[in-house]
């Protein structure tokens, strides 16, 4: 009875997954460096509001995205200062960042509620009118940037010297320090990268997805990105599958409304979270066998010996 | 409060500076916090003396909005009404608004706060504000509250709403003319009768033109959640809808429709400038005359509880200018509007068959207001179900 | 070359002079965060065209200037204090339960379920049964985390967070489908409880209900358990030095289980109190983020039961202030988050400065090998120095 366009589904899922992919790719690097930043939601909101404001005021998409990334990175340095320099508890500092970011973004964006934008143009694909499936390749530039970032992070972590250092810092900051690497500097840079990506992810929401600014518009996407990093076993490639899975669940939930399923949609929506817990369980058994990629020093405070 | 200040200051200073060393050390942060809290509160209170209201003050009227006034939809429309009240009565009334007040228990404190601050007439625009309003009204027998689209009345709480479904029907007529696929998409919020009625009316309008038309639903389970509304809009377009409408409060659906080149309606206020190339028309709510009437009633002492429910002829509703459609479609829409206004067209006239195939009302009869106010079934032709 | 050295502060608290110095530092650590937050908050007011003192008055004083404001402050602070009391147990044991929000929701669900289906309306045990239902449901939700953490060694931060979302979706399902009020025109909420199933109101014409008083025994119990019981000692030892706890015969698993159950129980109780005292029905927005805010409260209160009460009042005040300021200054309600975030950040910062001294010294030119040697000087167990040092860093 209901004809479904798989093409349209795929495009919708791609649109919903972009902010998750960007934010999660950033957080993955942060966690690989041994820091758990629970402030994703706050950084995304700051990116969303600043990106939107800059777009409205300057008119340039590029400047808007750049500003969102910069603000995310800058804002994340508040977190970095607290957890690295002041050795504050990462859970507390991350939550403070989330709450502060939500409040600041709301105040900053108060004058921009209800302002509308034309959506960001998609990158046209030559010949997309020839076959509808080629239309699948038409996305906003931020989508492609998300893919690029994942490829870049994969290369950086596993094929570059700096990435090796970063992973060493995340696995054992004491050994890395003993080898003469600056644990704090590596972590600060990782946190800045994570902030920039979260800012971009937020900017995608306000510039492309809706496109408008509303308070708290990330609606928990920062937390989902956090789950995604675990879901991906801290591996950039698996992030692609993870975001696809998470985004498809949220989108297919709306599709499934047409089918009067026996399973309530809320149970459907629980799947990503339950799957993340299942993966945590699986990983912990792998951890037992010493084969996990989980950064060993994740969430632990580093105090350099005097 | 004033008497408390010196004591508070002294206590705070004492706790912070002079308490015995041992005790302070043992109690640690706890006591210091209390002390500092008291100290700072005291200092701030000294710094700014609270302003007092003057005698013979104007009637204080408050407006409590579910969403932000910048939503350019539901709450924006009510804010226009508030401005009209202020302009009409001038110094006779003092109006104020609070926005983004969620439905549910938290709103009761807001009502209580407003009542405490001397607001005598309070308008709230959230369906789920009703119970909180009824409870808060007990604080002051003088106070009167009105809830837009609310669920129940009390002697102090009245309800008011527009017959939005009349506008929905006209939008449906336009969609019936314009839809190539014969399928429209409807972003639905919560399954209350108000929303269900709008969905059925839209389908009836479509079917008055195209008897095979279908309407697809996507529930977002919220009145205002722009990213989710955008997701739902994308899904509906993906499922073959070539006309979009929504019962949510933001312009997100119009943004997506513009991006995908699909025509769409606006809601609550004229949303034309958000997407001039695809916007068809908006069902515009007009609250000015109702608010002015009720404020006068309160001032005259003739305010009475009840349920106001007005449509085109009662001045609570109008269709904004018709765009992006052939002249004959706009003409048809105007004709239907005139018929509804004159009472010549009954929208929920039988025979009406529901999704299960049961006849809800026989040919020749019309659903009465009681049936409309508790509607919880969909017409055959609606693809979707109550969640 | 000038370098910054960070050294731990040490106070000889046995001598009067040392104690005085310690007190001075501690006093500063409490005053400065508040002043810094107020100063920054004032700047934010200023940047929005609001006179700072006027803004601060609207935020922190005006809400407390009448009976309604004072009672609402207590109503708002009670769930925060209850949840935070429970969090003290887990945090002191170095177990990071950040899923109190979910446990709060389950508590509300448990109490509602008991009210709707389990107890006869006129039984004298019905009210205690509601609270029991809430506590059990909250503890059970935390029990899932405990099981995963204790037996499967799963990271409790992430799995407790995931369970928050599962709990919210469960709540949405319940109020939308099976527990929806049949007379409620399909609006997602349950039917109202009978008035016999509601807690009495303490002050006429306010919402101050009996449940607010639960905080007093809860705080006393928390203080006793943490400071005067073997359980509390085991928690502190396990939190600060897991190895020592093992040698002392405290089972790590047992501590994880107990602390999480207690923490979930407190959150569940708070959820039950909210439903039975305030709303009288289950609604989708039963929690405006109490579970997450309570984490801030626990930290602001210095992980001390009395500190938690003060911090809960302060944070509740920021919420009320946010609402009040919206009326008088047109600042968005979310501005309350700015004060909460600033407060927590400043407390974190000054927690550090009260424990460390920052000193500018001249660097001694060290040979390259010195770095390695420095780390070789570490104690045999490097974790004692940094990596797993479980001392709760404020």
Describe this structure in words.
The complex is a heterotrimer of chains A (306), B (387) and C (394). Chain A has one domain (14-288): Orthogonal Bundle (ABC transporter involved in vitamin B12 uptake, BtuC). In chain A, helix 1 (6-32) packs antiparallel against helix 8 (183-209). Chain A is 68% helix and 0% strand. Chain A is mostly helical and 306 residues long. Chain A has eleven helices and no strands. With 387 residues, chain B is an alpha/beta fold. In chain B, strands 12-10-9-8-6-7-15 form a seven-stranded mixed beta sheet, with helices on both faces. Chain B folds into three domains: 4-47; 59-162, Response regulator (Rossmann fold, 3-Layer(aba) Sandwich), CATH 3.40.50; 164-285 and 318-383, Rossmann fold (3-Layer(aba) Sandwich). Chain B has helices at 4-18, 21-27, 29-47, 74-89, 106-116, 130-136, 164-178, 193-209, 226-238, 252-260, 288-300, 327-342, 369-373, and strands spanning 59-64, 93-98, 121-124, 144-148, 157-162, 183-188, 214-219, 243-246, 263-268, 279-285, 307-310, 317-319, 352-353, 359-361, 382-383. Chain B is built from 13 helices and 15 strands. Chain C has 394 residues and is mainly alpha-helical. Chain C has two domains: 1-50 and 337-363 and 390-394, no CATH class; 67-330, ABC transporter involved in vitamin B12 uptake, BtuC (Orthogonal Bundle), CATH 1.10.3470. In chain C, helix 3 (67-92) packs antiparallel against helix 10. The radius of gyration of chain C is 24 Å and the shape is globular. Residues 366-394 of chain C have low confidence and may be disordered. The interface between A and C is large, with 66 and 66 residues.
Specify the overall morphology of chain C: globular
Secondary-structure-derived class of chain C: mainly alpha
The N- and C-terminal alpha carbons of chain C lie at a distance of 31 Å
- The named CATH superfamily of the largest domain in chain B: Response regulator
- CATH fold topology of the largest domain in chain B: Rossmann fold
Helix percentage of chain B: 40-55%
CATH C-level of the largest domain in chain B: Alpha Beta
Q: Give start-end ranges of low-pLDDT stretches of chain C.
A: 366-394
Biggest β-sheet: strands ordered side by side in the sheet of chain B: 12-10-9-8-6-7-15
Name the beta content range of chain B. Answer: 15-25%
Query: How many strands, what sense, and barrel or not for the largest sheet of chain B?
Result: 7 strands, mixed
Average pLDDT confidence of chain B is 85
Number of structural units classed as domains of chain C: 2
């Amino acid at each position: 009875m209901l004809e479904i366009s798989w093409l349209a589904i795929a495009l919708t899922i791609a649109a919903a997954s972009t902010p998750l992919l960007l934010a999660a790719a950033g957080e993955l690097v942060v966690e690989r460096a041994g820091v758990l930043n629970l402030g994703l939601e706050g950084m995304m909101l700051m990116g969303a509001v600043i990106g939107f404001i800059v777009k409205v005021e300057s008119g340039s998409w590029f400047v808007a995205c750049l500003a969102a990334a910069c603000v995310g990175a800058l804002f994340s340095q508040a977190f970095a200062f607290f957890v690295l320099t002041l050795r504050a508890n990462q859970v507390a500092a991350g939550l403070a960042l989330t709450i502060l970011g939500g409040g600041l973004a709301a105040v900053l964006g108060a004058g921009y509620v209800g302002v509308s934008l034309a959506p960001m143009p998609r990158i046209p694909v030559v010949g997309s009118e020839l076959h509808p499936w080629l239309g699948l390749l038409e996305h906003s530039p931020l989508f492609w940037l998300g893919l690029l970032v994942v490829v870049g992070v994969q290369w950086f972590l596993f094929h570059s010297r700096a990435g090796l250092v970063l992973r060493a810092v995340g696995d054992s900051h004491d050994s890395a320090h003993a080898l003469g690497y600056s644990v704090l500097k590596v972590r600060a840079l990782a946190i800045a990268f994570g902030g920039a990506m979260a800012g971009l992810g937020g900017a995608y929401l306000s510039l492309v997805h809706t496109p408008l600014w509303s308070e708290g518009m990330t609606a928990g996407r920062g937390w989902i990105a956090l789950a995604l990093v675990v879901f991906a076993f801290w591996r950039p490639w698996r992030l692609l599958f993870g975001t696809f899975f998470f985004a498809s669940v949220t989108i297919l939930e709306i599709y499934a409304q047409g089918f009067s399923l026996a399973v309530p949609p809320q149970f459907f929506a629980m799947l990503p979270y339950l799957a993340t817990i299942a993966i945590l369980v699986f990983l912990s058994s792998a951890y037992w066998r010493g084969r996990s990629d989980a950064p060993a020093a994740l969430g632990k405070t580093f105090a350099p010996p005097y | 409060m004033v008497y408390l200040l010196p004591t508070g200051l002294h206590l705070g200073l004492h706790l912070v500076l002079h308490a015995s060393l041992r005790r302070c050390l043992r109690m640690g942060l706890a006591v210091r916090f209390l002390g500092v809290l008291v100290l700072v509160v005291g200092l701030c209170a000294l710094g700014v003396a609270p302003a007092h209201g003057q005698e013979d003050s104007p009637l204080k009227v408050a407006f409590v909005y579910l969403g932000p006034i910048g939503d350019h939809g539901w709450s924006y429309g009510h804010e226009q009404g508030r401005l009209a009240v202020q302009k009409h009565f001038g110094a006779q009334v003092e109006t104020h608004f609070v926005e983004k007040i969620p439905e549910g228990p938290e709103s009761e404190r807001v009502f209580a706060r407003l009542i405490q601050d001397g607001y005598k007439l309070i308008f709230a625009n959230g369906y789920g504000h009703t119970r909180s309003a009824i409870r808060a009204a007990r604080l002051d027998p003088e106070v009167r509250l009105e809830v837009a689209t609310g669920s129940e009345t009390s002697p102090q709480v009245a309800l008011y709403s527009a017959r939005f479904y009349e506008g929905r029907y006209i939008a449906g007529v336009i969609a019936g003319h314009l839809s190539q696929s014969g399928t429209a998409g409807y972003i639905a919020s919560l399954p209350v009768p108000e929303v269900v009625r709008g969905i059925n009316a839209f389908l009836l309008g479509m079917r008055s033109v195209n008897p095979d038309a279908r309407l697809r639903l996507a529930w977002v389970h919220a009145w205002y959640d722009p990213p989710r509304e955008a997701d739902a809009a994308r899904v509906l377009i993906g499922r073959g809808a070539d006309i979009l409408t929504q019962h949510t409060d933001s312009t997100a659906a119009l943004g997506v429709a513009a991006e995908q080149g699909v025509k769409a309606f606006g809601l609550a206020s004229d949303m034309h400038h958000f997407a001039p190339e695809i916007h068809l028309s908006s069902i515009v709510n007009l609250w000015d005359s109702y608010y002015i009437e009720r404020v006068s009633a309160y001032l005259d002492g003739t305010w009475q509880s009840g349920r106001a429910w007005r449509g085109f002829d009662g001045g609570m509703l109008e269709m904004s200018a018709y765009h992006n459609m052939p002249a004959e479609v706009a003409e048809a829409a105007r004709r239907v509007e005139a018929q509804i206004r004159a009472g010549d067209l009954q929208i929920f006239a039988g025979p009406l068959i529901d999704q299960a195939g049961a006849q809800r009302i026989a040919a020749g009869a019309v659903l009465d207001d009681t049936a409309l106010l508790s509607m919880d079934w969909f017409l055959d032709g609606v693809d979707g179900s109550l969640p | 070359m000038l370098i910054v050295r960070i050294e731990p502060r040490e106070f000889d608290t046995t001598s009067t002079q040392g104690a005085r110095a310690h007190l001075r530092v501690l006093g500063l650590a409490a005053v400065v965060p508040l002043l810094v937050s107020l100063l920054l908050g004032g700047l934010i007011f200023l940047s929005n065209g609001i006179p700072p003192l006027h803004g601060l008055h609207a935020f922190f004083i005006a809400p407390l200037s009448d009976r309604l404001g004072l009672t609402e402050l207590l109503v708002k602070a009670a769930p925060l204090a209850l949840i935070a009391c429970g969090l003290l147990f887990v945090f002191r044991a170095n177990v990071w339960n950040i899923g109190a929000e979910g446990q709060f929701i389950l508590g509300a669900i448990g109490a509602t379920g008991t009210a709707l289906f389990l107890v006869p309306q006129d039984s004298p045990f019905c009210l205690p049964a509601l609270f029991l239902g809430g506590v059990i449901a909250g503890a059970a939700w935390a029990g899932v985390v405990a099981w995963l953490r204790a037996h499967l060694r799963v990271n409790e931060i992430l799995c407790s967070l995931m369970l928050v979302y599962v709990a919210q979706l469960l709540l949405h399902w319940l109020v939308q489908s099976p527990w929806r009020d049949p007379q409620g025109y399909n609006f997602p909420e349950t039917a109202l409880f009978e008035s016999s199933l509601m807690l009495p109101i303490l002050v006429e014409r306010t919402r101050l209900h009996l449940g607010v008083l639960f905080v007093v025994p809860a705080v006393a119990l928390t203080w006793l358990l943490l400071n005067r019981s073997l359980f509390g000692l085991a928690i502190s030892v396990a939190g600060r030095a897991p190895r020592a706890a093992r040698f002392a015969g405290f089972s790590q698993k047992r501590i994880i289980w107990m602390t999480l159950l207690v923490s979930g129980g407190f959150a569940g109780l708070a959820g039950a109190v909210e439903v039975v005292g305030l709303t009288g029905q289950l609604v989708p927005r039963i929690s405006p983020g109490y579970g997450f805010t309570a984490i801030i409260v626990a930290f602001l209160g210095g992980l001390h039961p009395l500190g938690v009460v003060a911090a809960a009042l302060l944070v509740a005040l920021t919420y009320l202030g946010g609402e009040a300021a919206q009326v008088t200054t047109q600042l968005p309600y979310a501005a309350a988050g700015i004060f909460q975030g600033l407060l927590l950040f400043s407390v974190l910062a000054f927690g550090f400065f009260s424990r460390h001294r920052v000193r500018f010294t001249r660097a001694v030119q060290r040979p390259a090998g010195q770095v390695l040697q420095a780390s070789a000087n570490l104690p045999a167990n490097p974790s004692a120095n940094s990596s797993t040092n479980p001392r709760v860093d404020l």
